[in-house]
Amino acid sequence: MSKETDGYRSTVVRLLDEIYEGLPAIDTAANVVAEAIMQDDVIHVIGPGGHSNMGVEELLWRAGGLAPINAILDAGTNLIHGAKRSNVIERTPGYAARVLDAYRVGRKPGEVIIIVNAYGVNAMCIDTVEEAKRREMITIGVTSRSFADALPADHPSRHPSGKNLYQEVDHFLDCRLPFGDAVVEIGGGEKTGPTSTFCNVFVLNLLMIETIRKIVEAGRTPPIWRSANMPGGDEANRALEEIYIPRIRHLG
Question: Is residue 1 pLDDT above 90, yes or no?
Fold first, then answer.
């Protein structure tokens, strides 16, 4: 073990501990998500830009995860179609509204959308939350306050308004992303050891756990996927597939 790998492990563990300190806010947001699911709504989840899409994918058709997750995986910001292209598109004002239209998001007031972006400053982030508000949706943001506050107001990655995602959502869940994302210095050059995906996914899974707990406490059976790689997995999932494949684009 090197001091660099040991330092990386220690930093990730510390960040997870700091995120866990925000459990009261996660618990409050879980009430919103659980109530929506018990009303037979799907939960929209979007990662406006680049690697944030991995947070969305974590919740889609995941072993132990909730079935009614409408993952918004826009080709424009997905890295498989071009990393630099994704960066350009996430900075394009006005793009988010058309993505929400394409996924039929916000067709009735009170729908829930989770916006996952550790940086929380780009045009697509801010346009998503503002458009969701116009559609009378309930917004939950997974992002980092410390990063947004530290980024200069005139940085080109920012929305033209200079707004921060954490200040605009109804429920803010702090993923505690450190400034710069990467945390390990080797030889005085650029740092390595990124942390944003760890941070985003840990928050999201805590939110799912608390949501499921609340559904169970309400006397309901939560719609949870079983791993398709486990014995009986395909059979266990079939009933949920019949319910949700017609309602969730990327599930079929």
Answer: no
Domain parsing of the chain, residue ranges: 3-251
| CATH fold label, 3-251 | Rossmann fold (3.40.50)
What's this model's pTM, rounded to 2 decimal places?
Answer: 0.97
CB 154 within 8 A of CB 122: no
- Classify residue 177 by its DSSP letter: P
- Provide the pairing of β-strand 171-174 with 138-143: parallel
Q: What is the pLDDT of residues 64-82, one digit of tens each?
A: 999 999 999 999 999 999 9
Cα separation, 6 vs 8, whole angstroms? 5
Longest dimension (CA), the chain: 56
Q: Token pair for residue 159?
A: 């929305």
pLDDT tens track for 169-193: 999 999 999 999 999 999 989 999 9
Region of residue 190 (left: phi > 0; alpha: psi -120 to 50; beta: else): beta
SS3 state at 18:
helix
Task: Say if CB 50 and CB 79 are below 8 A apart.
Answer: yes
Q: What is the pLDDT of residue 188?
A: 87
Contact call for residues 48 and 128 (beta carbons, < 8 A): yes
The first and second tokens of residue 250, run together, are 């990327």
